[in-house]
Amino acid sequence: MEQILTQEEIDALLSGLSDGTIEPEQIKEQKPELKAETKEIKEFDILKWTKTKKENLPTLQFIYDRFSKSLQSSLSLFLEKDVEIENSPIQNIEYREFIKSLPLPTNMNIVTTENLNGFFIIIFDTKVIFYVLETLFGNPNPTVTKIEGRDFTKIELYVIKRLVEMVSLEMERAWSPVFPIKCRYSRSEMNPNYVTLISQEETVTLSQFNIELGNVGGWMKVCIPYSILETIKDFLISTPSREDIEMRQKWVEKIKENLSHVPIEIKAILGKKKISLKEFANLKEDNVILVDKYVDSPIEILIGDKPKFKGKMGILKGNKAVQIEGPII
Question: Nearest 5°: CA angle at 185, between 181 and 191?
Answer without folding.
Answer: 125
